[in-house]
Every structure is written in structure tokens, then in C-alpha cells.
Design the sequence.
């Protein structure tokens, strides 16, 4: 949240903020990002979007190695509830991140994968 406030007030710090998120500077290493702030961060940093930045923000919201399947579903529920307030880039990037990484890391049962895919489809649905 503080990072978003800082770059809104001082936009010339956007490149530094992106670098800190990507490279995990000490002040950000152990911080989990909340969904609305992450979405807002991506809106403010449009000119600096890279795959590395997208990967870093997704890992800040949902470090898949550290979360249970239940915790991941809770994150997706929160995103679905806040969908109208989230930027489309964040939704797309996060959906890709989950689809690319989750089945491999958690050895999911096919029905669990279908449930998560349904949630991701709802998140990506327009309107």
C-alpha cells in the first residue's frame, strides 16, 4: 500500500519501485501484497510492464510454494468479489500465473484443477 501511495505522489520513483518489486529489496522481501494495491500498482506502472514485474507481483500476492490450495482459492474468491475494481492487466497476468504454475506445484487432482479453472474463467469473463 505504501509503495502505491509513494509512486502516486512521486511518479518519478516508478522505475525504482518496479526494480524493488522485481529484485526483492529488503524492505519488500517478506511483504505480501494485497489485491487492490497490486492492481493499482500495475495501473500506475504501465510504461514499465515486463514479464519479470508481472512474475514478481504475482508472487507477492500468491507465493504458490507457501500457500495451501484452500488459501489460493480464498485469494481467487477475493479477486472475484473485487473484480470490477481490478485492472484487466492484473486479472490477465494473475490468471496466467495460476494456470502456468499451480497444477505443477500442488499435484492437483483433476477435479481440483477444474474447480480452479472455473474460478479463473469467471475472473476472466467480461461483464
Sequence:
Amino acid at each position: 500500500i505504501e509503495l502505491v501511495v509513494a509512486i502516486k505522489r512521486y511518479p518519478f520513483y516508478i522505475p525504482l519501485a518496479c526494480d524493488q518489486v522485481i529484485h526483492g529489496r529488503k524492505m519488500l522481501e517478506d511483504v505480501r501484497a494485497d489485491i487492490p494495491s497490486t492492481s493499482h500498482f500495475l495501473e500506475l506502472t504501465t510504461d514499465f510492464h515486463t514479464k519479470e514485474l508481472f512474475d514478481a507481483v504475482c508472487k507477492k500476492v500468491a507465493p504458490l510454494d507457501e500457500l495451501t490450495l484452500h488459501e489460493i482459492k480464498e485469494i481467487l474468491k477475493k479477486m472475484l468479489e473485487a473484480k470490477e475494481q481490478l485492472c484487466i492487466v492484473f486479472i490477465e497476468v494473475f490468471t496466467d500465473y495460476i494456470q502456468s504454475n499451480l497444477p505443477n506445484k500442488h499435484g492437483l487432482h483433476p477435479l481440483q484443477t477444474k474447480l480452479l479453472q472455473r474460478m479463473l474463467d469467471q475472473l476472466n469473463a467480461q461483464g
